[in-house]
Amino acid sequence: MMEFKEQKKYALPKMVIKTDGYEVPFALYKLESVLRKLGLATDTDAIILALLAKLADQTTLTSTEIYDKLTATLNELGYDTEAKAYVVYHQADEAKWQEETDPTIRLGRLRSKDPSLVHENANKDSNVFNTQRDLTAGTVGKTLGLRMMPKHVAKAHLRGDIHYHDLDYTPWSPMTNCCLIDFKEMLTNGFKIGNAEVESPHSIQTATAQMSQIIANVASSQYGGCSADRIDEVLEPFALKNYDKHLAESKEYIEDPAKQIEFAKKRTKKDIYDAMQALEYEINTLFSSQGQTPFTTLGFGLGTSWVAREIQKSILKIRIDGLGREKRTAIFPKLVFTIKKGLNLKPEDPNYDIKQL
Fold first, then answer.
1. With helix as H, strand as E and coil as C, how does the chain read?
2. How many Å apart are CA 65 and CA 208, to the nearest integer?
3. CB 332 within 8 A of CB 296
4. Quick check: bond before 150 cis, omega within 30?
5. Do the Cβ atoms of 244 and 213 come closer than 8 Å?
6. C-alpha–C-alpha distance, residues 226 and 221, integer Å
7. Which of 161, 169, 188, 288 is 20 to 30 A (C-alpha) from 51?
8. Whether the Cβ atoms of residue 287 and residue 335 lie closer than 8 Å to each other
9. Is 202 in contact with 190 (CB distance < 8 Å)?
10. Is 293 in contact with 283 (CB distance < 8 Å)?
11. Are 167 and 140 spatial neighbours (Cβ–Cβ below 8 Å)?
12. Tens of pLDDT along the chain (357 residues)?
């Protein structure tokens, strides 16, 4: 493309007034994009120069003026077929806008099981009643959200130039979207959920059970994912309670202190595996009020104690083993393993074996 700033004959317009009244900077690349879509990539410079001549050095113009004058320019330069295609493209763009912002049309598409609506989210089963309810609300919410935005922003979303995340509920509804849950605070000091005051757990099994309850409630109160950071370190104190219990138990039957420790560690490792397996299954069997599996992410990998190492290994082994008889790979929770120099990056690092796993 030629550099138009170097062209003394015609100046680029500075501002464009959109059909909804918003003023935006003139964007040359949009004209170039349209011409490429019309198959005129090699002739773009000449067409744009001819168009700028028609604009007569205007500093501000409307989007309708650009449309009319580009159509006229194409016809005058002999691109009659492309001019007609541009008109069709423009009409289709407007028709899509009307369709996407009309709740009646969108609800009709939903009732007819339009795949773009019912299969929009991988962790939603559209055959479930509360998912259907959520899809219905979201379908209407999207039309309202698009109408609330500046039209050029909404159309950019529909074209795929930008993506307005979770338009089902925002900006129409002020729901929160995604959060990092403070599991450490709640599990350490207790919390209130529903009508129950829940005290700090005394085992890792109870801790992971409480985590699943928290995830279910948070996921039903917002739209988006739930994250748990450094989960191996967060759960470590509760696994140590298991260890202390098993160690005390071992002293009743085993005299050798070394064997007492061996027994307690063996039992604790099993408890850790069982607790992390239960968390994986519980997350994958949960449904939030939106009818979807909570979009959950677990971060781990920085713990250094034998307990934290065991939690890390259990998370990975459970994911490798898979769910159920068919050993299916779980979709959730997403696993984010942290790599750190001196800890697990290189073969000589103490947790390198976990990184390899």
1. CCCHHHCCCCCCCCEEECCCCCEEECCHHHHHHHHHHCCCHHHHHHHHHHHHHHHCCCCEEEHHHHHHHHHHHHHHCCCHHHHHHHHHHHHHHHHHHHHHCCHHHHHHHHHCCCHHHHCCCCCECCCCHHHHHHHHHHHHHHHHHHHHCCHHHHHHHHHCCCCCCCCCCCCCCCCCCCEECCHHHHHHHCEEECCEEECCCCCHHHHHHHHHHHHHHHHHCCCCCEEECCHHHHHHHHHHHHHHHHHHHHCCCCCCHHHHHHHHHHHHHHHHHHHHHHHHHHHHHCCCCCCECCCEEEEECCCCCHHHHHHHHHHHHHHHHCECCCCECCCCCEEEECCCCCCCCCCCCCCHHHHHC
2. 62
3. yes
4. no
5. no
6. 11
7. 161
8. no
9. no
10. yes
11. no
12. 444 444 445 678 889 998 888 898 998 888 998 999 999 989 998 999 899 888 877 889 999 999 999 999 999 999 999 999 999 988 988 888 888 888 888 888 777 787 777 666 655 666 776 677 777 877 888 898 999 989 889 988 988 889 988 888 788 776 677 889 999 999 999 999 888 899 999 999 999 999 999 999 998 888 778 999 999 999 999 999 999 999 999 999 999 999 999 999 999 999 999 999 999 999 998 877 666 788 899 999 999 999 999 999 999 999 999 999 999 999 899 999 999 999 999 999 999 999 999
Pairing relationship of beta strands 179-180 and 226-228 according to DSSP bridges: parallel
Other beta carbons within 10 Å of 70: 21
Residue written as token pair 């713990």:
303
Q: What amino acid occupies position 270?
A: K
CB 290 within 8 A of CB 120: no
State the Cα–Cα distance between residues 247 and 225, nearest whole angstrom. Answer: 38
CA distances from 122 to 73, 104, 136, 231 (A): 46, 25, 17, 25
What is the pTM for the complete model shown? 0.71
Q: How far is CA 216 from CA 128, 134, 211, in A?
A: 17, 16, 9
What is the Cα–Cα distance from 151 to 147, expressed in whole angstroms?
A: 7
